[in-house]
Amino acid sequence: MNLRFWDIRRATGLGVVAGLAALILWPLYAAYQEPLLWPFIAALAVTAFCGLSLLIITLKDIYSRTRGKLMHRIRVFDVLLGLLLAVPSLFQLEALLG
Prior knowledge:
The chain is mostly helical.
């Protein structure tokens, strides 16, 4: 399976948009519950997927290429953003579905 179209830029962009959508849906879900359950779950799932994708792509890049110190600093940012997207959304998904 060829996933060359899925790169770090797309994962970051979609992940941030999905994360913002989840943040907007969160208080609305708290107020209206049932009608917004599946849109909230979908936004969280896309956010978690993008965060995990960022982590996988970054780790693959770090271990497959030798880079300078500047690129390692940029990759640290990618890892932190991936964790910021993945961890909270996975915890909320587990609370909703678990």
